[in-house]
Amino acid sequence: MKKIIDLSNTDAREFLLKGSSYFSSDLPPYLSFEPLITEVATELNEGYYPNLRDKKQKIYPQHFENVNYLLLSNKDGRFDWRPMELIHPLIYISLVNLICKDENWNSITNRWSSFQGGMVDCCSCPVSSENDEKDKAAQVTNWWNQVEQQSLIYSLEFSHVLHTDVTNCYGSLYTHSIAWAIHGFDEAKKHKNDMSYLGNLIDAYIKAGRYGQTNGISQGSVLMDFIAEIVLGYVDSLINEELVGQTDFRILRYRDDYRIFANNDERCERILKVISEKLLFVGMKLGNSKTNLCRNVVEGAIKADKLAGISLQDLGSGQTLTMQKKLLRLHSFGQHFPNSGTLRRLVSDLHSEIYENLSTAPPDLEVQVAIATDIGFDSPSTFPAIAGILSKLISLAPAGDKVQLWDKVRKKMARVPNNGYLDIWLQRVIVPKEVGLKSDSNEPICKIVNRESTDLWNNHWIIDPNLRDSLDLSKIVIGSVSDTPEVMNPQEIELYRRNLYLY
């Protein structure tokens, strides 16, 4: 794998224009944003939208609401949700073209280099895979090697580890701090209205899709991950300046997650204070609920859910556990560690087992369906894998029972509020012709799959008719959902098959 910062500007542009970089979460196999992104990029021809706005009429995207599209993903089955923001393709591609312009890319990479080498180790620069491993899987491999494994190594030097992270990192980032990060605070302040400065332009483009807001950046793309890393790298440099000359500690940072290693409580807490103060400078603050100190680094290096999950790794393969008991064990685990990375991995493992080994309907099929559905209800982040498990189980039911079972699943999952992402995966498993149900979701992406007329982005600020035409939403549907196999293959969702112990 290669860090994005080590790519040439042309390779970085190619990487960022991939559909999986534009939207970094899983989608069913008949959905992809890449054809649309490719067409808009071709039409834009390495330019960016300031050259295309109508200066006479003063039509600007920041004057319009809903320029970007919010795809909501529920986190707890109730009222905690994560907004994944699909940046308007014209703005997204404009940003990519701007950042990957030769001289701009050199400025960013040089600035990035200046953030490195202190007592804060950044372990989360976006990476591109160099083989058939997916980019997201490569990112997780990077986390395992640089964070978890390095944490264990630090147990030779340090007795304490303090964990903390930023509350609502992307949503609280002050967009003007992007210019501070790229140009330095004093330089950026002197030229805060100079739109020839790269940082100011990036700031302007991000605000253009968010109704001019200066607080927060979009979440859900590799590009925004990279911009967040530039700002957090700037914060790293401020922390290093404050603690220069001190060597009795180390800090590992993975995105907005910090691990402080030292040899006593007081030292950890003093460093935590410095991190908190420097984050406030760019609009961020630490979350008290996720700040904890462990006096054994080996124990503290591994997440609690992963330690608990190790005992469930084989899901009872050495015992004669029934599938119902395996599901109940996962259900119990999910109650203690809802939506955790380990739960997602364990559910994905069970999906593979059921897909490969279950060939006849079990006598307790409806009970298994009920338990699996409840896991997805309480931990919606598991639902793509849960949908796969359900697709296999229900495919074995008598033909007359399939619709009834899926209808019960659909009605239960409909009680999860604000979860368009879940609806996308539910559509994947109920619409294939062997099932024959129709998705009645109000999620616009589901409507696009159904060939219904709808919008994702507000395009009223686009004057150029060719650019408007290139934003044809039908292009994101690259296959027929009704022709999709009734049973989901684990490869549709398993990004981490080669790295089962990463979570």
Distance between the termini: 19 Å
Task: Characterize the largest beta sheet: strand count, sense, and whether it forms a barrel.
Answer: 5 strands, mixed
Biggest sheet, spatial arrangement of strands: 4-7-8-6-9
Structural class of the helices, strands and pairings?
Answer: alpha+beta
Task: State the helical fraction.
Answer: 40-55%
Task: Point out poorly predicted stretches.
Answer: 496-503
Average of the residue pLDDT scores: 89
Strand residue percentage: 5-15%
Q: Helix count, per DSSP?
A: 22
* Spatial shape: flat
Record field, number of beta strands = 9
Roughly how many Å is the radius of gyration?
Answer: 24 Å
Task: Describe the structure in your own words.
The longest helix has 21 residues, at 222-242. Mean pLDDT is 89; it is low at 496-503. The chain is flat, with a radius of gyration of 24 Å. The strands form 3 sheets. It has a 5-stranded mixed sheet with strand order 4-7-8-6-9, with helices on both faces. Strands 1-5 form a two-stranded antiparallel ribbon. It starts with a strand and ends in a 33-residue tail after the last helix. It has 22 helices and 9 strands. The chain is an alpha+beta fold and 503 residues long.
Could you list some keywords that capture this structure?
single chain, 503 residues, alpha+beta, two-stranded antiparallel sheet, 9 strands, 8% strand
